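can u do me a favor
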């Protein structure tokens, strides 16, 4: 399986709380999301995925939202797909959005390496910036789907490690929505 990260990102690299107005600086992506390009990219990524891998905060936000939308095709896929949540605070009793498997934070990298070694489609990471940054730092990510929104936020959580390590990427495709959002797909490049 390969790890694919899909995030909404501002021009200045912020991935924090793009969808919900009640989250931190939230709701900033909404004016730029449109069904054809942005929605299509997310739908396409989910169709290739055999599982979701999420951080605790992202999992909890999605667990509140997607079950309420049951009956819509995208929501039904989100609800049915196997999910892994990395957390140091959740317990099995908290996993009400099924099917979800708890991945203890302390052993997350080892568990993700095991997932990568198994057969199957993509493991899709949606949002989850702390988890995504750790996966990038460990060299476990094979593809990034960055949906760049034409907005500057002036600060917030970044997706990218700040360890000074160069990580080459290859731009595979770019599609621009009418709203100015750009869906850019990058693949990691193995260094010689």
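np, heres the sequence
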């Amino acid at each position: 399986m390969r790890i694919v990260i899909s995030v909404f990102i501002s021009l200045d690299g912020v991935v924090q709380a793009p969808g919900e107005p009640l989250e931190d600086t939230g709701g900033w992506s909404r004016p730029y999301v449109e069904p054809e390009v942005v929605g299509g990219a997310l739908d396409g990524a989910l169709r290739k995925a055999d599982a979701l891998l999420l951080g605790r905060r992202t999992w909890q936000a999605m667990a509140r939202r997607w079950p309420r939308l049951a009956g819509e095709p995208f929501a039904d896929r989100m609800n049915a797909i196997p999910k892994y949540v990395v957390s140091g605070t959740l317990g099995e009793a908290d996993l009400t959005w099924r099917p979800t498997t708890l991945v203890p934070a302390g052993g997350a990298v080892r568990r993700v390496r095991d997932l990568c070694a198994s057969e199957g489609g993509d493991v899709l990471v949606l949002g989850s910036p702390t988890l995504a940054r750790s996966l990038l730092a460990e060299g476990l990510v094979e593809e990034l789907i960055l949906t760049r929104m034409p907005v500057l936020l002036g600060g917030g959580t970044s997706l990218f490690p700040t360890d000074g390590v160069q990580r080459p990427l290859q731009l595979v495709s770019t599609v621009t929505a009418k709203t100015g959002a750009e869906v850019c797909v990058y693949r990691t490049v193995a260094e010689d």
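Strands lie at 2-10, 49-55, 83-87, 100-104, 122-126, 141-149, 169-176, 182-188. hope that helps!!
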